[in-house]
Amino acid sequence: MVQPQPTSVTALPSGAAASSVDATLAELVDRLVVSPEHLDGYERDLFPHWTDDDGDGCNTRYEVLLAEAIVAPSVSGTCDVTGGMWLSSYDGVEINDAGGVQIDHLVALAEAWYSGAFSWTTDQRERFANDLGVPWALNAVSPDANQAKGSDDPAEWLPPRPSALCPYVEAWVGMKVRWNLTIDPAEEEALETLALGCPESRITVPLGVPSTF
């Protein structure tokens, strides 16, 4: 996972719509809307994913594999990926086979549904599920880490690798802001506590859907 880099705050004219938000981690946590989760109706198929938006033959999964490889794989045919090496940021596991890499939605599709995506259009859900607009939306990780995380939020699961903790929390909050998703009360409490442990964190977040910020 690439840690978001700090930039200066740019004030917007009164009434202007923001295309991005820049603030400290604690400030962004404070601005997230707290709401009970909407648990009914989730189905994974409601989020069309692994599309090939640029038509180059590599779908979203392969785009992430190519972007996050620490040793570049070979690519042949219609995006047949062989060789290469990946470092699972959550647990520090090295993976030497593309087939052994799982692509994690940092904010899981189910969690997104619970947090507001239930009211989105199919197009919005597809854009979320294939979000290559920021480097921390989708992550190449080990199967063990991905399965342990599941659809949990930071009140329920955190990466076991200490160096991954603050980047993970930054990215989580960044995704909730980027897609105008809510947080539940337990999630809010966890994020407030975690933000205290990451006092230097500052995030610039390009917005993905219309935001109240």
Give an overview of the whole structure:
The protein has 213 residues and is an alpha+beta fold. Helix content is 30%, strand content 13%. It has a two-stranded antiparallel sheet. Helix 1 (25-31) packs antiparallel against helix 7. The longest helix is centred in the C-terminal third of the chain and has 14 residues, at 165-178.
Beta strand count = 8
Main sheet: strand order: 1-8
Strand content: 5-15%
* Shape verdict: globular
Q: Structural class of the helices, strands and pairings?
A: alpha+beta
Element string (H = helix, E = strand): EHHEEEEEHHEHHHE
- Oligomeric state of the chains in view: single chain
Residue windows where pLDDT falls under 50 for at least 5 positions = 1-17
Helix content range:
25-40%
Rg measurement, Å: 17 Å
The domain tally reads: 1
**What distance lies between the first and last C-alpha atoms, to the nearest angstrom?**
25 Å
Number of helices: 7
Q: What does the average pLDDT come to?
A: 90
Largest sheet: 2 strands, antiparallel
